[in-house]
Every structure is written in structure tokens, then in C-alpha cells.
Design goal:
Length: 251
């Protein structure tokens, strides 16, 4: 009597293939942002060096914020006239206030991800920035990847690493980078974000909200200060949701 061969253990090939496909998708979606971050954060590194931060401090700050506006606000406080011993506290408060907008972004992403524990969810969205949000959300809305948690984590990590590399390069080259180059790098920021918005042509609601924010945040800044970066997007999001719910469905 011929014995049947023992059952083969389950293959990890599908999982590996899925991970490889996710990585290729991340490269295709985020490559432009990764390259742009390296150049854009040169200016952040230059400001950091002028504020007296070391290379290690620059890298840690960039990794924890990945937000050029927040870091620029902190550097302006640290290099302002009459800065006192409490300048670090003021800079940290400025960074926290500016980065409160990430609460809205993270909530939008988590609402489109499968149920995950605290650690897996934190790993997926813990390094979200404004730019990686602009990559992740349209992907989740249009053609979600097979492994969305891995996709979100890889996009966040790749953007964060490129920002740190750019900031460190800018810190090391601060003495040799002319002021005109720093100004040009600063001018790249609005052009860069305008390009990210333009890429979402098929998501009309996203474009409308982004354009509304681009117009209303500067108008509200004299009255609300840094809080305009949180209050105005929240107001626009609430209004957009109310309009969406009030619009009758087709059919």
C-alpha cells in the first residue's frame, strides 16, 4: 500500500510576492516626493545650523516632525532677538501647534485601513507627513494595495529618511550654501505642494479642500496664528462632510 506524501507546509511565496508588489508600488508613488524632500530639506538643515543645532539634533528633530513649516517656525523662534533660556520650550510648543494638523490626516487614513492593534496602527501612520498623506490617501481611495498597513508604513519611512538625509546635507553644507540658494529652496515649497495637489485631478473633493485651505489659512493666520493650520482645515473638512451628506446619491 502506497502511503500518501506528508502535507507540504504552507508557502510564504504569496506573502513575499505581495510585499514585493507593495514595495514597487511605494517606489512608483513616492519617488518624486523622496527626491524632492532631499532637496527641499537642505534649507531646513541650513536654518538648523544657523540656529546652533548639532547634526544629531537636526536629524532627530527632522525625524520627529518631517514638517518643514514646523521646523522653520521653531528655528525663527530660536534665532529671534531676545531669545531666552526658555526658547527651547517655545520652539517645541510652536512645533506641536503646527503639527496638530496631523491629527486630521491620521484620522482620515485610519478610517480607510483594516482593523489593527495599537502597535501596528502606530507603525503604519506614525511617520505620516503632509506629503506622504497626499500620496497615501488618494491611493487608499482609488486602488488600495494588497497590504495597506505595510504600504502606509513604507511611504512614511521612505519620506522621513529622505527628509533626514536632506536636512543633514543642508546642515553640513550650511557655510557654503549662498543665501540666494536657501531662498530658492524655500520658494520650492509652495510649488511642490501645488504639484502634489494637481496630481489628484480625479479627486475633485480633495482638490477643492486643498485649494480652500491654501486660500483661507493665510487669510486666517493674522487672527489665529499657528492655530490657523489646525482650525481652518477642521472647518473645511466639516463643511465638506456636511455638503457630501446633503448631496443626494445618484440613481
Amino acid at each position: 500500500m502506497t502511503l500518501a506524501p506528508p502535507p507540504m507546509p504552507p508557502s510564504d511565496a504569496p506573502a513575499a510576492e505581495s510585499a514585493g508588489a507593495t514595495l514597487r508600488l511605494v517606489i512608483a508613488d513616492a519617488l518624486v516626493v523622496i527626491l524632492t524632500f532631499i532637496v527641499m530639506f537642505l534649507g531646513v538643515g541650513q536654518l538648523s545650523a544657523e540656529a546652533g543645532l548639532s547634526a544629531v539634533q537636526t536629524a532627530v528633530m527632522t525625524l520627529l516632525t518631517v514638517a518643514a513649516p514646523a521646523q522653520a517656525a521653531a528655528m525663527q523662534i530660536m534665532t529671534s532677538d531676545g531669545a531666552t533660556s526658555g526658547v527651547w520650550v517655545a520652539a517645541m510648543v510652536a512645533v506641536i501647534i503646527v503639527n496638530l494638523r496631523f491629527m486630521v490626516m491620521v484620522a482620515s487614513i485610519l478610517g480607510r485601513l483594516p482593523q489593527a492593534g495599537f502597535l501596528r496602527g502606530t507603525a503604519a501612520v506614525g511617520l505620516v507627513s503632509a506629503s506622504s498623506f497626499a500620496i497615501i490617501l488618494p491611493r487608499l481611495m482609488s486602488a488600495p494595495p494588497a497590504r495597506p498597513l505595510l504600504y502606509c508604513a513604507l511611504v512614511g519611512v521612505s519620506c522621513s529618511i529622505s527628509a533626514v538625509i536632506g536636512a543633514l546635507l543642508g546642515h553640513q553644507l550650511a557655510a557654503s550654501v549662498p543665501a540666494l540658494v536657501g531662498a530658492a529652496l524655500g520658494a520650492m515649497i509652495p510649488i511642490y505642494f501645488a504639484t502634489l495637489i494637481a496630481r489628484q485631478g480625479k479627486h475633485k473633493a480633495l482638490i477643492a479642500n486643498a485649494l480652500a485651505g491654501a486660500v483661507l489659512v493665510p487669510l486666517a493666520a493674522p487672527l489665529l496664528g499657528s492655530l490657523s493650520l489646525l482650525i481652518v482645515p477642521l472647518g473645511i473638512s466639516a463643511l465638506s462632510l456636511m455638503i457630501g451628506k446633503g448631496t443626494p446619491a445618484n440613481g
